């Protein structure tokens, strides 16, 4: 079962994740609609669920993620 199954996010959670993803994409010069951004979005969801629940913490975690 994937970590996103049966997960519910508040609108505020989505704003936090989208903000961090937008900043990550700008830094990496990645189009938000690209497969790389989709992979980063999946990683962001997992990182958010593991406790990186502010935009700043999530962005740091995305920067340090080995697969990105």
Describe it.
There is one protein chain. The protein is mainly α. Helices cover about 65% and strands about 0% of the residues. The N and C termini lie far apart (about 20 Å). The relative contact order is 0.20. The model has no long low-confidence stretch (mean pLDDT about 90).
Topology of helices and strands:
Elements: H1 11-28, H2 35-49, H3 55-64
Helix pairs in contact: 1-2, 1-3, 2-3
Overall, the morphology is: globular
Spatial separation of the terminal alpha carbons: 22 Å
How many separate structural domains?
1
Strand content: under 5%
**Quick one: biggest sheet?**
none
Low-confidence stretches are none
Keyword list:
68 residues; mainly alpha; 3 helices; globular
Task: Kindly summarize this structure in a few lines.
The protein is built from three helices and no strands. The protein has 68 residues and is mainly alpha-helical.
């Amino acid at each position: 079962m994937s970590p996103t199954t049966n997960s519910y996010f508040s609108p505020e959670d989505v704003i936090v994740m989208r903000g961090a993803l937008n900043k990550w994409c700008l830094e990496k010069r990645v189009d938000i609609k690209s497969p790389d951004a989709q992979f980063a979005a999946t990683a962001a969801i997992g990182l958010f669920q593991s406790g990186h629940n502010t935009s700043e913490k999530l962005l740091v975690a995305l920067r340090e993620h080995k697969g990105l």
